[in-house]
């Protein structure tokens, strides 16, 4: 194989042994999303304490890219403040796994890579809107999630 | 006299895209024919000839170009009729594809004929295009949608059809002639004869059958029959709906506009004759003309030869794939009961990953739910890999697929 690698050791390993995999009962945030192209689904569960992500898990069916990205995403944002999550950018996630090239090379597979981030942004957005009358605090998260790819 | 395999190999020169290299200078192995097939020069040239030499709207003007384009367009209708063994080419309606054909029937026939409490029967192995239009119709009419389930072999459980028919409420049975995922060929004669005895209308989604086998519509005896040109060497954007004249004449129109009218007054309109009543607006003239060349190309090879060629490839592929440990094959084990479509999963590797890895070797297959999520639910998988063959494919290409699959095993350390 040549070109930019996708199936690195790290990705295969995460796909075999995803981290933070599972459900949280009665989570503060539960966001479900699906990729209409392939039927893959993801469920993201978060608990929020002191405006920080105290707990996060994900569940679902996905390809190796989707599983690896979801694993790394949950690892990266656990313990972060909601403000940090609002600012969290897709490049941070992709570069962690060496997948930045997907943005250019594979408009199809990039959707697998970013499904969990999209759910996260939607989930946090809904949480803000529910929690605060002043929904402006949610900023452009909703739009950002919708335009992620 | 060439051997048959050589004769098929020889066709490849007619398909320019088969010469191209993909990814890392790999030869293209195109196994996504159930989604759409490649096009021979004969089709491509006919389309550019139309645009270069006689582009003109049809049916209305009296100038020379319009006469030529109208003749070429209408000639295709006759070619399609002959291909399907239909006597009256006015029963051939050009649509955009299978999806539009089914929607046309659901809208124009369904809304007039399906009432509250009635039943529409479909099957578990339908493409979304033969499910969603019926959901829309049955929801609107408070009618019911029922499914014929499949057994472990991927074949329809026809006892269930008997049960549905015995209620006396069934208005239409609609099913695919060949499953686009499992390749199962439906027992058409049995289904049609059961429905006819019960006085029930039958629609056949022939998107996956007409391209691959001889179909004689005069013998089948169904009421509606739909397929897409792009899955049989033709251009995208052309499909055919066939229905019996008596039915079409009674049906309300689908789209209103130009061409489908006889006379328009301020508040009422009378309909044009068949087939124009169902062909509103400027049709896809260029591609309909190109489609004629696709049919001529297939007829020259012979539909029975095509079926045999694909059967050979399918048998070979099934045998080679069975040797790969951890590979799950879906559908009937009897090659004669299936078309050249093979769905499979490889251990727990997600089909997207399989597809991406073998793409590096130039092998194009489909990974996903194949617009058949009802079937995916039944198989209890989110997705499958699907390799599907056509006239230009060879056993050597299947060997490339097998080697590429072994590479997947290496990457995933299976
Ligand atoms: C069995 C079946 N029915 C319907 C369709 C839809 O055809 P089209 O997309 O050409 O309308 C397809 C093709 O994907 C198919 O395989």
From TrEMBL, chain A:
GO terms for biological process: iron-sulfur cluster assembly. Residues 7-129 form the NIF system FeS cluster assembly NifU N-terminal domain. GO terms for molecular function: iron ion binding; iron-sulfur cluster binding. Gene3D superfamilies: 3.90.1010.10. NCBIfam families: SUF_scaf_2 (TIGR01994). This is NifU family SUF system FeS assembly protein (IscU, nifU). The lineage of its organism: Archaea, Nitrososphaerota, environmental samples.
